[in-house]
Specification:
8-stranded mixed β-sheet, globular, 4 helices, alpha/beta
């Protein structure tokens, strides 16, 4: 059946969230899966596990509570947000593998741009080495047990919701953003976690190019 790609452009967060919920609630067994690609105006979103004290100083940026997993994150212009709306039961894989496949799509997207992404155990999302984002050397466990993120920057955040075996919410890839708002939260609940984008690590790519690339990698990775 494949995935129907929808390019939404820049859209407000809350109506998009509500549209995902409505789409998922109305799904039938034969409803085609969709992949929404978009960008949001500046917004903090708080996941179900989120604690208000991780939002340090939101200022004029709205904070929206959501029903996705995870903690607080920031969405803003220059970030590609991908929302896969997948019937996991029909696709034939469980939530843990679904998360793995999304991360794999981000890793492949970065690899095509020459960047080596890394997973950190117990911390969903994708990270890069700040000192050498193009290094293929694997992470060899936490070199600093007290700080598993030392030397790393987060380039992609992930938060999902599964309802009646169907997924919504998704993954964000930082392309060319104003990163300052990340300093006003504990990203994903980790104090002092550095956030980076492709531009910061020296990769010049347009939002459209990054969105098309991530969309293609997600479509391939999420196929049954």
């Amino acid at each position: 059946m494949g995935i129907a790609m929808r390019a939404l452009g820049q859209v407000a967060y809350l109506p998009t969230y509500e549209a995902m919920q409505a789409f998922t609630a109305a799904r039938k067994p034969d409803t085609a899966d969709e992949l929404w690609l978009c960008e949001h105006p500046p917004t903090y979103t708080q996941g179900l596990a989120g604690q208000s004290d991780h939002v340090l100083n939101p200022g004029e940026i709205p904070v929206v509570s959501t029903n996705r997993g995870g903690q607080v994150t920031y969405h803003g212009p220059g970030q590609v947000v991908a929302y896969p709306l997948i019937d996991l039961q029909r696709a034939g894989y469980y939530v843990k593998e679904y998360v793995y496949r999304i991360e794999e799509a981000v890793l492949r997207t970065l690899a095509q741009l020459g960047v080596t992404g890394h997973r950190v155990a117990g911390a969903p999302g994708i990270y890069v080495r700040l000192d050498d984002p193009f290094s293929h050397a694997a992470l060899t466990g936490p070199a600093h047990p007290g700080d598993p993120f030392r030397g790393l920057g987060k380039i992609s955040a992930l938060g999902i919701k599964v309802s009646r075996h169907c997924s919504y919410h998704g993954v964000a890839l930082n392309v060319a953003m104003d990163l300052e708002p990340f300093s006003r939260i504990n990203p994903c609940g980790y104090a002092g976690l550095k956030t980076v984008d492709l531009r910061t690590i020296g990769v010049s790519v347009t939002w459209d190019e990054a969105a098309q690339l991530l969309g293609a990698k997600l479509e391939a990775a999420l196929a049954p």
